Amino acid sequence: MLEIKGDLSLLDTLQMLKVLEGSYVIKTEDAEIHVKDGTITWFSRGDSEDCIRYVASYRGKVQVETASVMEEFSLPIEDAILQAVFLSPSGQTREEVTEVEESTCPTPETGWFALVMGDRIIGSQNVRDEKIKEVMQLWESAGKIVEGLSELMCTGKGGALYIMREGDTVLMGYCMEKRFLGIIRQSVRRLKKHVHRGTKKQV
Amino acid sequence: MSIGELKSRYKDILAIGIFDRKARKYVEDVDMTEFLSTGQIEDLLIRMEKLNMNELIAVGKSITLLILSIGPERALTCVAPSDRPFGFCREMLHRIAEKLGQS
């Protein structure tokens, strides 16, 4: 049995299983998620879309066991996480969500993500609004110089920031280590295809 | 190696400049002011500092702007065409910074 200790969220647990080979059953207080080689294959309470919504909203105990799994669909954990971070957990206020998020320590490669439409912050994970506004000011300054600005990358001692625009929506992602720059760029670009679906749910 | 020599070596580059933050001007400038004014680079450097960043790559419709802050007083700026791959632009910026450091 794989034993995971600590106060971990479902997202944290999935982050760990993303890189592990083998079959695992994640048991929460009211559901089961089956994972095989970094891919979610079964959810006890519905299909892959239901699973993403559940991952976004669940706050509670998580237990992981190595076991044979059911295979009904194939949802890469990375995609599930990226979609889940922009879904607002139902029944929770933004303050409550922030409190929960801040109590979990992000892994080095995850950092934070945010989605901004016009001057509204539509969704964010592990980042304060003030920081998002600072990033948007940088984006706007660069946009005045570079015509048709579509991508912006910034790196520093602490990590790497990647920003991209899709219509009037700006997506940004930050990773805490520069070596993950490729990953963060890929991750933010992948979010592109989920933006409209995610946004409709939020507005 | 001078900025002019660098530009003739890296033919893809549209403009290069070294910006002196104290003097508030480009000390070496190969067409850089055409793309990025003193006020604009100062503004960007301040915003980058706020976010603890020292390197910026902004990709637009036709140009890619690269800024590398070298210490608190100098910054290397560069403009390349946007049809070049993202990684290539970054690599080029660092090579130039390295070459300037050696000169």
Q: Indicate the percent of residues in helices of chain B.
A: 25-40%
Mean pLDDT of chain B: 81
- The Rg value of chain A, from CA coordinates, equals 17 Å
Assess the beta-strand content of chain A as a share of residues.
Answer: 25-35%
Q: How far apart lie the N and C ends of chain B?
A: 5 Å
| Uncertain residue segments of chain B | none
The helix/strand order of chain B is HEEHEEEH
Structure overview:
The complex is a heterodimer of chains A (203) and B (103). Chain A has 203 residues and is of the alpha+beta class. Chain A has helices at 10-18, 48-57, 77-84, 94-103, 129-145, 181-202, and strands at residues 23-27, 32-36, 39-43, 63-66, 75-76, 112-117, 120-125, 151-155, 160-166, 169-175. Helices cover 37% and strands 26% of the residues of chain A. In chain A, strand 8 (151-155) and strand 9 (160-166) form a beta hairpin. Mean pLDDT of chain A is 74; it is low at 88-108 and 193-203. Chain B has one domain (3-102): Dynein light chain 2a, cytoplasmic (Beta-Lactamase), CATH 3.30.450.30. The radius of gyration of chain B is 12 Å and the shape is globular. Chain B starts with a helix and ends with a helix. Classes of the chains: A alpha+beta (203), B alpha+beta (103). Chains A and B meet through helix 5 and strand 8 of A and helix 2, strand 3 and strand 4 of B. Strand 8 of chain A pairs antiparallel with strand 3 (55-59) of chain B.
